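Interim report to the steering committee. The following record documents the input for EutP/PduV family microcompartment system protein (148 residues).
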Amino acid sequence: MKKPIFIGAVACGKTTLCQRLLGQAIAYKKTQVVEFYKHNRMIDTPGEFMEHREYYSALTVTAVDADVIVLVQSVTDHRQTFSPGFGSMFPKDKIGIVTKIDLAEDPADIDWAVDQLKAAGASQIFCVSAKTNTGMTAITDYLEITEA
């Protein structure tokens, strides 16, 4: 299993994504601190780390332990969360995940989120809905998750 670190804005779906990937019941839980799942094989970060530049150092230090950087962008959040080239601060593989695609009001919303992740440095993009389980198999396969 590749060890991912999930980075994104508050309420973009990082924790829900972790819960779905691990086969857990989906329940709202505000991430207050860095959390490690599946015996330290999955890292979930608070959205505030992404939204406030003064916490970027916490992201870079925590990411040292990860195998892959996962940049997460909700289709419902139209803020430019990631600056262009954001991922270049991490010398690791970077992927992007567009979340909440079931809530897209227009296909252009998904395209916008994909463009944001590409500009941030994601080399591969996955579009998912953890709620409906759409697209989750592709992420599970990429991360080599064999059991929940």
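The mean pLDDT is 94. The committee is asked to note this result when reviewing the revised timeline.
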